[in-house]
Amino acid sequence: MLKKDENVLPKSFLSLQLAIKHPLSSLFPMSDTLIVERTPDLPFGLRADRVAVSLLFLANGFLIGSWAPKIPLLMARLGITETTMGLLILVFGLGSILMMPVIGALTARYGSAPVLRIVSVIVLPLLLAVSILPELWMIVVAIFLFGGFVGGMDVAMNANAVAVEKRMRKAIMSSCHGFWSLGGLIGAGLGGFMASLWGEIGHGVALTILASTAVFLALPMIARDHTTAAIRAAQPLRMPRSPLPYLIGIMALFSMVPEGTILDWAAHYLQSEMSADISIASLGFAAFSGTMAIMRFLGDGIRQRLGAVTTLRISAAFAITGLFVGALAPTPFAAIAGFAFAGIGIANMIPIAFSAAGNIPGVAPGIGLSVVTVMGYSGILMAPGVIGFIGERTGFSPVFMGVASLILVTLALSGLARHADFKPD
Which sequence ranges form a coiled-coil region, renumbered to this chain (predicted)? Predict the structure, then answer.
């Protein structure tokens, strides 16, 4: 049996042998029996498999971030109302929710690497298609496909991050999500600049080129899965009978509802209920997302030192405290500080839930992740609308306290985070 990171034959010999026997094996591997346990190191001690999955998280976040500045451009070109645009955004979410279980099943059957290669390439031209298609019905189809494949890519790349974690025997999920946050920030920040400079089509071309660069750099380095093809073929593709994926999904759901609430309603709360200027009100989500990105890059080391369960419990305590401070703050700047504090806590709750979902005994990583991802992202896609309805009637201070209370459920289920920890072989 191979020790970790040990090769039986030189990597070049194995690659040549594999290429001669199976010319398409790099895209559709038939077996993992010839695959070495790790990809070769890059300069400066970087691991190719970790760089690849980080680039894919960056590209996925960049595409999502680039969608935000596309919305006003699309409304102006088509002459549509906010209501119609809201329906298009719903189509995006519907595509994601429907495609995630499909990609999860394919990942469970064929492994994350080939599925990730395919979906990450398919998604690249879809935002450009949204920019150039002339008819509304065509754009609806393109948005549905974009939502579907960007969501499917999310499942596959999280499964691949789990595979890299297993190879390295250490946590990397938080930093992967940090790259996703960084990509979203770059996509949203550059998107407005590129759109004002080059127009809608120029923006679409530029973002496609930038995302394609990251994806095609990553493709040759994507790690193959820890399990063999024979083991994957024997795994059932039905919905799990074990309650564990659904309980971890509840953890993810109640971790992501606060993120969606701050994203959609923090600025409105600061402006309408605390009389903050719009320039100050916008700092609520900015402070939250900034601390969240920083903590995601620090989160792997914290989790490695403290363990996933303790890290999750401390994170939940930070999140609850920050949301209560935001809800009860006497001034806008105190509320902004509360949201920043909440970002410190929420940052690593989702990565831990995803790592746990990919390591449930008896459940294929792709299946477990698809369940948890769908349940988690429904918190961002659906909860803010319900919260807006409630907030209109009660005000948003009680809403933020209520959302903080939801995290108590995550805290109660935090023992399930033990599945995210690595045990010695």
Answer: none
Total number of domains in the chain: 2
- Residue by residue, what is the 3-state secondary structure of the chain? CCCCCCCCCCHHHHHHHHHHHCCCCCCCCCCCCCCCCCCCECHHHCEHHHHHHHHHHHHHHHHHHHHHHHHHHHHHHHCCCHHHHHHHHHHHHHHHHHHHHHHHHHHHHHCHHHHHHHHHHHCCCHHHHHHHCCCHHHHHHHHHHHHHHHHHHHHHHHHHHHHHHHHHCCCCHHHHHHHHHHHHHHHHHHHHHHHHHHHHHHHHHHHHHHHHHHHHHHHHHCCCCCCCHHHHHHCCCCCCCCCHHHHHHHHHHHHHHHHHHHHHHHHHHHHHCCCCCHHHHCHHHHHHHHHHHHHHHHHHHHHHHHCHHHHHHHHHHHHHHHHHHHHHCCCHHHHHHHHHHHHHHHCCHHHHHHHHHCCCCCCCHHHHHHHHHHHHHHHHHCHHHHHHHHHHHHCHHHHHHHHHHHHHHHHHCHHHHHHHCCCCC
- Residue 325 pLDDT: 97
Where residue 353 sits, what CATH number does that domain have? 1.20.1250.20
Q: Which tens digits make up the pLDDT trace of 376-388?
A: 888 777 776 788 8
pLDDT of residue 41: 63
What is the structure's pLDDT at 405?
A: 94
Q: Are residues 189 and 333 in the same domain?
A: no
Asked if the model's pLDDT at residue 299 lies above 90, the reply is yes
By residue range, what is the domain housing residue 267? 244-420
CB atoms within 10 A of CB 239: 12
pLDDT at 288 over 50: yes
Cβ count near 277 (within 10 Å): 10
- Domain assignment present for residue 27? The answer is no
Is 65 part of a structural domain of the chain?
Answer: yes
